[in-house]
Design a protein that fits this description.
Radius of gyration: 27 Å
Structural class: mainly beta
Number of helices: 4
Order of helices and strands: HEEEEEEHEEEEEEEEEHH
Oligomer: single chain
Distance between the termini: 92 Å
CATH topology of the largest domain: Pnp Oxidase, Chain A
Strand content: 25-35%
CATH class of the largest domain: Mainly Beta
Shape: flat
Strand order of the largest sheet: 3-4-2-1-7-8-9-6-5
Number of domains: 2
Amino acid sequence: MRQIPNGMAEHLASGATTLCHCWRVALKSGEVLGFTDHDRDLVIDGTAYEAEAGFAASEIESSLGLSVDNLEAAGALSSARLSEARLKAGDFDNAAVELWRVNWQDVSQRVLLKKGHVGEVTRGRGFFSAELRGLTHVLNEPRGRLYQYGCDAVLGDARCGVDLGNPDFAAAVQLNACRERRVLEVSGAAGFAAGFFAHGTLAFATGANAGRGGVIKFHRVAGALASIELWQPLLFDAAAGDRLVLRAGCDKQFSTCRAKFNNAANFRGFPHMPGDDFVLGYAVRQKKTKGKG
């Protein structure tokens, strides 16, 4: 049962209220944003809540037990901090959200209505709609180890142990040309064989995409130049001369872990597990042979 602070309870019981909604959004990058449907900016606990940012909340669906509660926030992209480019880039993916009901005349009088994370985001021309998932949605996510051939670690994490800052696994390159924001021709990676960076990542150090990157689909080599194709197009146009860093990729196979990264001891899969042929196999009776003599 939600506990309403005394000051807020007295305000609600007064019959004449001055209430608004406030959204506190904490991005994975550490940036904290505030939005309110009030007609002027508010400051609560050091966080500035931008007025008329286009937010409008749907009815909150709550239930007992462990079922996932949902709320939808929709509105116009009227804030520079809440732009279509940032939504498209995934800046708000799985961001932590708090929805408050606030007395705008005295912001110390407030009650937390909802807490969760940003789910599916739908974008339109100057419009967005974001699903806000309740805290119980994390219980639907798989946990623990998977019994499978492939490694379930992320290349470069603590369980993997590979140092992606090692020059053997990374290359600082320069962009020569870019087509359709997906196919990049770069120089500076001549020492790496074709396919070395496939399944890996790239990150821009300069240019319009500085601080952003993508996942590499294909890595091809043509002489001293390398062609990098991404799974998803870049958010902004990339220009010749932009600097970026390529990092090695891994296909999660034991042979790759051993030969490419010399990291077989940290392989987090089960390469010797029996396959379907073992399950479908059956015993065969061996015929006895009579001895000679």
